[in-house]
Amino acid sequence: MKPTRNPWARTGAGLAWHLWLPVLLVAGSLLLSQQFSSHYFPPLRTIAEQTWVIWFDGGGMAENLLPSLLRLLAGFCAAVVAGVLLGTLLGLMPRTEEALRPLTDSFRAIPGAALLPIALMFFGTGEAMKIVLIAFISMWPIMLNTIDGVRSVNPTLGQVMESFKLRPLDRFWHIYLPAAAPQVFAGARTALAIGVAVMVVVEMFGTPGGLGYFIRHAQENFQVVAMWTGMLVLGVFGYLLNALFRAFEKRILNWHHAMVAHTQGASS
Amino acid sequence: MRLLQAATVVGFLALWELFARTPTAAKADMPGALESLGRLGELLLTGKYWAALGSTTGSWAVALTASIVMGVPAGLAIGRSRKVFDSTKWSIDFLRTIPSVAFIPLALLLMGRTQAMVIVVAVIPAVWPLVIQAIYAGQQADPMLGRVARSFRLTLADRIRYVLAPDVLAFIWPGLRLATTAALLVTVSAELIGGSRGIGSEIMNAQIYNRSATLYAWVLTACFLGLLINAVLAVLQRKLLWWHPSLRGKQR
């Protein structure tokens, strides 16, 4: 790209470079799938039409998307609260943390899906099982990152807290939480991806309602087009969730990025 | 500390044993720690156990290798060129956020309950972190290193061994760690949902036939497999990346 004076032309060129492949991919699959006669790969147009019929016209949003979203939010929020609290405690008690490490390492190492039958036996197939499992499995990355974040607090700040005799709650709220925030967010981003995966898996086994249930049910009844619409909705769901989380993170961590830029600018 | 950690493990097992005797646990048919470990011991002597464990480990390893072979060169190529990076950015951003478990039903329709199905589904979440990190590696590649290599007339093999490999390795390592965990999670999930042979389907079968001690023995197996993989990664990291500034003098 030649550097142009006109900023509009430059953004336009940048936009064109960003856009051509996605447009080509969508157009290509639109055309190709039209020619394709495979039962398993229905034409994209049919999928798009059915997505409208099933999810927007037919109330699929309220029936399957909303429950998924709500239980993911419930599980994820529980994971954040539990992960941050436990992480802060363990971060401040290095000896306890080290003693407990065989357990935390083991729980983190279990591939989450393996816990599904145990959760089924304890909580049944209902909502409690789904939320508990989402929360339990996605809690670990948040907790481990919080431990690291709390440890990274500048030792001088510790002395400052001593001299001001800050109450523990104030220390947590004003010192440890902001200091650990960048790492907490990094852990939470991983946790969100894990949470969505766990959500889909538990819904495939649990009571009706939810994206995972819908896709699994459609597949078992060979409703291939319906299954594809479910996958499409789930894909957009995952994308939007991630985008929202990143926007939120950027907003909250604004001060942090400004500080990094400032200190790096000052040192160079 | 070692002693304290051993005490923690024993304490946990004792708590488990006690909890298993409460009415809550009895209602959920939870076996005690001793019973589960005993069952695991019995399973260890059967060929079926090792076949299932080998199947899961094999699927995981093939999926991870395939992800590295596809993801790293692709990512490096994308990272090298600004235009290619811009062109692929949105497509990659969209594709990588699709939860990989969404593909399990489709893969089941296409491939049935086979190991190939498990592998294909496990590649999907493993390849993206590697692509992303390799893109960073491609973007950050120091042109000076290439020039130095040329001045010294390094052979291609030496250039790969001494210039390219260490640099790329340091960049893709975090991606590799994410990829290993994601691939294992999805391997077990696909076996659980699809019923292809492996830890996942053994767990599901144990649940269906109400053999709770067997179920817990398999969950312990999954946990040990995860621990083993993490331990191997930690050793590899010490052996391969000890020189990297972010890891020097770090214990964990």
UniProtKB/TrEMBL annotation, chain A:
The keyword Cell membrane applies. SUPFAM superfamilies: MetI-like. Residues 65-245 form the ABC transmembrane type-1 domain. Pfam families: BPD_transp_1 (PF00528). It comes from the Bacteria. It is a multi-pass membrane protein. InterPro entries: MetI-like (IPR000515), MetI-like_sf (IPR035906). Keywords: Cell membrane, Membrane, Transmembrane, Transmembrane helix, Transport. The chain crosses the membrane at residues 12-32, 69-94, 222-245. It is found in: Cell membrane. Belongs to the binding-protein-dependent transport system permease family. This is ABC transporter permease. It comes from Arthrobacter hankyongi.
